[in-house]
Amino acid sequence: MWIEIRLESRHTLRLRVSLSRALLLLALSSVFLLSGFAQQTPPRPPDPSSQPPKADQSKDTQKAPSQPQNQPVPGSSSRQGKVEGTSNDRLFYTLPNFLTLENAGQVPPLTAKEKFAVVTRGSFDYVQYPWYGFLAAISQAQDSEPGYGQGAAGYAKRFGSAFADGTIENYMTGAVLPSLLRQDPRYFQSGKGTFWHRTFYAMSRNIVTRTDSGKEQFNYSEIAGGALSAAISTYSYHPKSKLVATTTPGVERFIPSDQTLSNTAKVWGTQYGYDTLTLVVKEFWPDIRRKLSHKRNSGEGAAVP
Fold first, then answer.
1. CA separation for the pair 184, 215 (Å, rounded)
2. Which sign does the torsion angle of CA 102, 202, 127, 296 carry?
3. How far apart are CA 157 and CA 121, in angstroms?
4. pTM metric for this prediction
5. Coil, strand, or helix at residue 229?
6. Per-residue model confidence as pLDDT tens digits over 33-52
7. Cβ neighbours for 246, distance < 8 A, ≥ 6 positions apart
8. pLDDT tens digits, residue range 171-209?
9. How far apart are CA 256 and CA 260, in angstroms?
């Protein structure tokens, strides 16, 4: 009976962590958006004498048509570590969104080396460190996985565990299995249809994905990769059962093991739910970004005397 109560409690705990992640996403977006607007200065009116003739501008426009958003330019070189066929985009201008393409259509497949390169770029991005630090702080405050203990040592273990959990899943679902099974780890935004049509499309991409040849296939990389990453992390470095001393002399507290099948299933379920929510955000982020850019440009235009 005690074990069942504890498992239910752990289930509730993981739900809280997922909600905390969503709250962090909103908080980070608000902070970065506000800071971006605050740093904007009204642009100076262009000097007519410094402008090239209009005829030359029209010729240049005809010779160099603009490329669609996030489309790789043929023959272009990568910048900022970008892998060709991926993007430099960030959700809410903050979180790595390098595997999302907008209006891409048929694009060349990623090689195994490129899949590993883009996953490495996103997994070790500078934003990830405060992100996992935040999750570790929540875990410590709620005393989840008490086998890690408290204090600086307990926090360090939780930070390392959270970082390892996320990194292992990123590699398994975005590089290892997609390379072995020749599946495309990128998310191809729909951008068409009603709100609910696009929402269901985004949610379905965790079940159906593209192959490297452009065909649709069951998303073994997400389903099996998520399960494998949850099993690897749970049974390798998560706490085992042990006895710890209490404040009462001669009395020890038994802490059950976190390396259980039920815990593995809950970790996988939490990761799958979070990945699904992220895909929905990725689907509508371009629309949100365009509206924000439109408002920003409108504000700048009104500020010009």
1. 10
2. positive
3. 24
4. 0.69
5. helix
6. 333 433 343 444 444 444 44
7. 252, 253
8. 999 999 999 999 999 999 998 999 999 999 999 999 999
9. 10
